[in-house]
Design brief:
about 500 residues, alpha/beta, amp nucleosidase, domain 1, Rossmann fold, 2 domains, five-stranded mixed beta sheet, five-stranded mixed β-barrel, 12 helices, 18 strands, about 30% helix
Length: about 500
C-alpha cells in the first residue's frame, strides 16, 4: 500500500495570484491571507484523514513568499545596517506566521520599498508547508507519532525537510534559492517554524509572549527575583509594563494575582514581563553549559530580538576580585566548542559599544558607585567560556596557562556561546557576570559560601540587567543594530 501511495495525485488549494505592493501594510495583509488559506487547507485535510477518511491522494500547500528585483546601484543610506540589498538582482524569502511577525515584516518591507524605490511581489512559494507546522497553533490537533497511523504520514503530507531547515544563510555559505535568487531574510520559513516549535517545548511559553529584550541566566534564583520585580512593576501604573507570563503560558496583570507554576518545569523556565509592542523583557534560565546556551539562542534568534544579554555567575580568576564583584565582558575566549563548525574560533567577537555603555551605566545607577571608584567592584576584560564544569580537577598547567595568556578575568560555561551566537545571528549581545567563586585562589563554590552570596547579590545583579535593557530600549533600533554584525553581502531583513 505504501509504495502505491507515494504515487498518489496531489491535491492543492487554488494557486493565489502574485500581487505587487508599494505599501508595506497591504503586503503584510496579503501575506497573512495566503498563509491562512494554506494552513487552513492542510488542517482541514489532516482532520479528515485522522478521522478515518481514506487518503486517496497527497495534500500540499505552500508558504507565501516576498520577492523583489532591483537593477540599480543607486546609493542608499549606508548608516543603516539593514533595509537594503547589497547589489542589483532578485531576492526572495519564504514567510511563516505573518501574524506573529507583523510589525517586523511591516518595518522590513517598508524599508525595502523606501530605499530601493521598487515594489515587492507577494505570492506562493515552491516550498511546501510541513503538516506539523500547519497544525502547531491548533490546540485541538496533534500530529501522531510515526507508526500510530495506518499509513506513513509522509506519503500523504509534507513533513519537515532538512534541505530548507538549516543555517546556511546566517553561516554565510553562499545560499541561493533554487531559481538563483538571493535571500532577503536570515532564515527560511521552515527554519523559523522549527524554532518556534522548539521554543514552546523548551520554555513552556508560546513564541508570541517573547519580548524584544532577552536576558539569559544560569540560576533559578534570578527567576524568583524577576517575578518579584515584575509584581512591583505591575503595581506601578507608570512603569509601562502590562503583564507577566510564566511557564505554561500563565498570565497575570495584577501584582497580587497567583502565578501558577506547572508541576513539572520545562528545561528552560522562562518569564516574560510584557510591554506594548514587545518592548518588555524576557528572562530565560538556560541552566548550565554551552550546549544549553546554543540551543536557546539558536531558536530565540528567529524572533529577531533587539538585544540579548547574559547575567549569570562566573569564577573570578584574579586574586584582586571579591565575591559579588561584576565582570563586564569586553572579549571572549571560546573553549566551549559547540559553535566551532558554525563560527570558527578565529572569528573575533567584538564588543558592541552601545551595549557596553548601557551595562556600565546600569552598574553605576544601581550600585551608586561611579567613575574611578567603579573599578573597586567591576572589571572589564576577557571572559573565558569552557565546556568542562570540573576543569579545576584537571592538571592546571594547561588551562591556567591559556587563561593567563588570554588575560582572562573570569570563566563560565555560557557567555561566549551566547555572544558568539549573537554575532552569528546578527543579534546585539553583551555580558555582565557576577563573581561567585575564585577556584584558583581557594574559594570554591561550596554550599555555605554560595547561599550567603545568593541572598545578597542576585537581586542587585538582576536589577542591573533590567536597567541596562531599559536603557537599550530607549535607543533607536538603527543605532543599536551595529554594522559590526554585518558581512560583505547581507540579507536586507534584520
Amino acid at each position: 500500500m505504501s509504495g502505491q501511495m507515494k504515487h498518489l495525485p496531489v491535491e492543492m488549494p487554488d494557486t493565489p495570484r502574485v500581487q505587487s505592493f508599494s505599501d508595506a501594510n497591504a503586503a503584510v495583509a496579503y501575506l497573512t491571507e495566503l498563509y491562512d488559506q494554506a494552513t487552513s487547507f492542510l488542517r482541514d485535510k489532516f482532520t479528515e484523514v485522522i478521522a478515518g477518511a481514506p487518503p486517496g491522494r497527497r495534500f500540499r500547500a505552500f508558504y507565501p513568499e516576498i520577492r523583489i528585483t532591483t537593477s540599480s546601484y543607486a546609493k542608499i543610506d549606508t548608516r543603516l545596517s539593514y533595509g537594503h540589498v547589497a547589489q542589483p538582482g532578485t531576492y526572495v524569502t519564504t514567510i511563516t506566521r505573518p501574524d506573529l511577525f507583523k510589525s517586523y515584516l511591516r518595518q522590513q518591507i517598508g524599508l525595502l520599498i523606501e530605499n530601493h524605490g521598487v515594489t515587492v511581489q507577494v505570492g506562493a512559494s515552491i516550498t511546501p508547508i510541513p503538516v506539523h507546522f500547519a497544525v502547531l497553533n491548533d490546540a485541538d490537533l496533534e500530529v501522531p507519532q510515526d507508526g500510530a497511523l495506518t499509513f506513513p504520514l509522509r506519503d500523504v503530507f509534507d513533513v519537515p525537510d532538512l534541505n530548507t531547515t538549516n543555517d546556511q544563510i546566517v553561516n554565510g555559505f553562499g545560499f541561493h534559492y533554487e531559481d538563483g535568487a538571493g535571500s532577503l531574510a536570515p532564515f527560511t520559513a521552515q527554519r523559523v517554524d522549527y524554532s518556534l516549535a522548539r521554543l514552546s517545548h523548551y520554555t513552556a511559553t508560546d513564541p508570541e509572549h517573547f519580548q524584544n529584550h532577552v536576558l539569559f541566566t544560569n540560576y533559578q534564583f534570578y527567576m524568583e527575583e524577576f517575578v518579584a520585580f515584575a509584581r512591583g512593576a505591575l503595581a506601578d501604573p507608570e512603569s509601562g509594563y502590562t503583564s507577566l507570563v510564566g511557564p505554561g503560558n500563565d498570565v497575570i496583570t495584577d501584582p497580587d494575582q497567583i502565578l501558577n507554576t506547572p508541576a513539572k518545569l520545562p528545561q528552560m523556565p522562562t518569564y516574560h514581563l510584557t510591554r506594548n509592542g514587545g518592548a518588555g523583557i524576557t528572562l530565560v534560565n538556560i541552566g548550565v553549559g554551552p550546549s544549553n546556551a546554543k540551543t536557546a539562542t539558536d531558536h530565540i534568534a528567529v524572533l529577531r530580538p533587539h538585544v540579548w544579554l547574559m547575567v549569570g555567575h562566573c569564577a573570578g580568576l584574579r586574586n584582586s576580585q571579591s565575591l559579588g564583584d561584576y565582570v563586564l565582558a569586553h572579549a571572549y575566549l571560546r573553549e566551549d566548542h559547540v559553535l566551532d563548525d558554525d563560527l570558527p574560533v578565529w572569528v573575533p567577537i567584538p564588543a558592541l559599544a552601545e551595549v557596553q555603555i548601557a551595562l556600565e551605566e546600569a552598574v553605576e545607577d544601581v550600585s551608586k558607585v561611579e567613575g574611578y571608584e567603579l573599578k573597586r567592584i567591576m572589571r572589564t576584560g576577557t571572559v573565558a567560556t569552557i565546556d568542562n564544569r570540573n576543569w579545576e580537577l584537571r592538571d592546571q598547567s594547561g588551562p591556567v596557562q591559556r587563561l593567563s595568556q588570554s588575560r582572562a578575568i573570569a570563566l563560565d560555561m555560557e557567555s561566549a556561546t551566547i555572544a558568539a551566537n549573537g554575532f552569528r545571528f546578527r543579534v546585539p549581545y553583551g555580558t555582565l557576570l557576577c563573581v561567585s567563586d575564585k577556584p584558583l585562589h581557594g574559594e570554591l563554590k561550596l554550599p555555605g559560601m554560595a547561599s550567603a552570596f545568593y541572598k545578597t547579590q542576585v537581586s542587585r545583579h538582576l536589577l542591573i540587567g533590567i536597567r541596562a535593557m531599559e536603557k537599550l530600549r530607549e535607543m533607536p533600533l538603527e543605532r543599536l543594530h551595529s554594522r559590526k554584525l554585518r558581512s560583505f553581502e547581507e540579507t536586507a531583513f534584520l
